[in-house]
Amino acid sequence: MFKSRKRIITLLLLSAMLVFSSVFPVYAATWSLNGDTNVHDPAYIKEGSTHWVFSTGSGLQVLYSTNGTTYNRSLPIYTSRPSWWSTYVPNHTGLDVWAPDIFYYNGKYHLYYSISTFGSKVSAIGLTTTTSISGGVWTDQGVVISSNDSTNYNAIDPNIMQAANGNLYMVFGSWSSGIYITAISKTTMKPTGNAYRIATKSGGIEGPSLVYNSSTGYYYLFVSIGVCCAGTDSTYKIAVGRSTNVLGPYYDKNGVDMKNGGASVIDSGNSAWVGPGGQDVSGTNVIARHAYSVAENGAPKLLISDLYWDSSGWPYYN
């Protein structure tokens, strides 16, 4: 009798735990990374069994991992400057490349990147392609879109996505000029028309990452708000809004249009990691970003987490 009663109580407790976890889901896991994880503005993709991370830096920096946790540094994409860089960004020197994005489409990996100088809208987004990341042979495809002091937008921080109807779009931009979206040709992988502003925020907004979640029926615009690149003094935060239309409008959790400053913060950092941002959402279940390590005096480090979605259709991770 006692054993039977104990078994019933155990079954009831297990049932209660299952109900609790379905109503209040546990937070997703942050991957335990090691090796060389020094990055800024990471772009993550998996080719076969190899995990690749592209990031801001000289020649466009590359990390790889065969298990997803231990990372090594590979050779940079560029060892010399394409001639068009100086044409579109005359004051750009050296091999400094910013905020890449990697997108696989039609049998090729398309690696978008930006060149610019701090505090200037004289910028350009470029494209290089390969059929095999591990093969290491990249072909520069020239300028994708450029900007100057007379354009509304700043041509940095590109991110490519495929909408529910199969069409391609690129989001890009930063700061006072805000975040813009433009249609992308499936043939040239470059813009086909005008760019439209979909988000702005005083105090800094950049690094957009746009994804469609077929389970919720929403497009989600992830952005970095605040100030980056100041080590542990950085104020970066990751925020999000969503829309039923790829062109917007995008609203935060309080119903505020992102064009009017709306943005729901989902990661503001913690005592160990300051200024999370430069995020890249891979599919709908992985998010990579950088944050500044308190333990390492503000060194920018790679963080990767599983991305979950709550019952209201909003993303979260721990």
TrEMBL record:
UniProt lineage: Bacteria, Bacillati, Bacillota, Bacilli, Bacillales
Pfam families from the UniProt entry: Glyco_hydro_43 (PF04616)
Chemical reaction(s) catalysed: Endohydrolysis of (1->5)-alpha-arabinofuranosidic linkages in (1->5)-arabinans
Enzyme class (EC, first level): hydrolase
Pathway(s) where this gene product acts: Glycan metabolism; L-arabinan degradation
Similarity remark: Belongs to the glycosyl hydrolase 43 family.
InterPro entries associated with the record: GH43_arabinanases (IPR050727), Glyco_hydro_43 (IPR006710), Glyco_hydro_43_endo_a_Ara-ase (IPR016840), Glyco_hydro_beta-prop_sf (IPR023296)
Ranges annotated as spanning the membrane: none
PANTHER family from the UniProt entry: ARABINAN ENDO-1,5-ALPHA-L-ARABINOSIDASE, ARABINAN ENDO-1,5-ALPHA-L-ARABINOSIDASE A-RELATED
MF (Gene Ontology): arabinan endo-1,5-alpha-L-arabinosidase activity
The enzyme's E.C. designation: 3.2.1.99
Signal peptide from the UniProt entry: 1-28
Keywords carried by this UniProt record: Glycosidase, Hydrolase, Signal
Organism of derivation: Paenibacillus harenae
Name of the molecule in the record: Endo-alpha-(1->5)-L-arabinanase
